[in-house]
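Sample entry was shown:

___
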Amino acid sequence: MPTVLRFGGLRVVVFLNDHKPAHVHVIGRGHEAVFELNGRNGTVTLRENYGFTRREIAAIERALISNLAELLAEWERIHGTE
């Protein structure tokens, strides 16, 4: 599970054997959340949340959107574009 981004004590990872659609796992502080990467419309969508507060989720979303192009490039590097 390569870490593709770090911020605020959190790791953003892409699992090697994961499935589509493109998404990342945000892990840290004993919590985990999964966000789908919606490159076409420049947003991310929370799919699962295990313990983060709403305020933390909002901050994570902002960080992911700021790095969306890089995150999508890493997803494609790991999983291909098909």
